[in-house]
């Protein structure tokens, strides 16, 4: 199974840290977020990962190289100054990701999640990993019923930025700047998006304050 780490964004909410450091190389407990992601992928038996590059992407290349020193093969999908967001970034990388379902992970999260084997049913085009809403979110992203993602009623769950997608989700999509969210909403309406709940540790490294708080506990 292949995987992709979304690392092209500027990390605006993390400024001024991300003025000089790409969000994927921010450290928690003395270790970069990318290194933690690599270890999670390797433990799941994934040996090759695509990383899209944008803001300060050369720093990622200099730090990671081929990925050999971390025990994983890294392939880059450079976007440079035309960052394509989540949807466009994935579409650009599709030829490298292959024809089978693949993991996509946001670079700027910290978690103890262990990637399971997820077999998408024939009518399912994606699977999102959710957590209970963190304390800083009054309303979440989704609901979950009968293992299907919903947007109705209360929204007690937040999307972790970890998901499995079938390449067919992106068919007929051109390489352009766009968010994946409308595609996900469309699949929710079609009951074609499944989900599961992670009850362990998960943190969105969204602000300097959250990063400082997390580093004080690890």
Mean pLDDT: 93
> What CATH architecture would you give?
Alpha-Beta Complex
- The named CATH superfamily: Spore Coat Polysaccharide Biosynthesis Protein SpsA, Chain A
Helix fraction? 10-25%
Shape: globular
Spatial extent as radius of gyration: 17 Å
Largest sheet: 7 strands, mixed
- Number of E strands: 13
Strand order of the largest sheet: 5-4-1-6-11-8-12
Q: Gap between N and C termini, in Å?
A: 30 Å
Number of helices: 5
Class, according to the CATH hierarchy? Answer: Alpha Beta
Report the order of strands and helices: EEEHEHEHEEEEEEHEEH
How many independent structural domains?
1
Computed structural class: alpha/beta
Beta-strand percentage range: 25-35%
Low-confidence stretches: none
Per the CATH scheme, the topology name is Spore Coat Polysaccharide Biosynthesis Protein SpsA, Chain A
């Amino acid at each position: 199974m292949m995987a992709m780490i979304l690392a092209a964004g500027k990390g605006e909410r993390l400024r001024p840290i991300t003025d000089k450091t790409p969000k994927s190389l921010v450290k928690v407990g003395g270790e970069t977020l990318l290194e933690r992601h690599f270890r999670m992928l390797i433990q799941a038996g994934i040996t090759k990962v695509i990383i899209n590059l944008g803001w300060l992407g050369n720093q990622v290349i200099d730090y990671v190289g081929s990925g050999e020193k971390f025990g994983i093969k890294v392939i880059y999908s450079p976007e440079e100054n035309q960052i394509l967001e989540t949807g466009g970034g994935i579409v650009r990388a599709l030829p490298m990701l292959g024809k089978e379902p693949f993991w996509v992970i946001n670079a700027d999260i910290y978690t103890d999640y262990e990637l399971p084997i997820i077999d998408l049913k024939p009518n399912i085009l994606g699977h999102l990993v959710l957590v209970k809403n963190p304390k800083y979110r009054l309303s979440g992203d989704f609901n979950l019923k009968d293992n299907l993602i919903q947007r109705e009623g209360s929204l007690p769950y937040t999307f972790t930025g970890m998901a499995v997608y079938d390449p067919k989700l992106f068919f007929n999509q051109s390489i352009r700047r766009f968010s994946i969210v409308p595609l996900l909403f469309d699949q929710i309406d079609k009951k074609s998006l499944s989900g599961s709940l992670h009850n362990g540790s998960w943190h969105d490294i969204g602000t300097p304050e959250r990063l400082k708080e997390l580093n004080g506990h690890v």
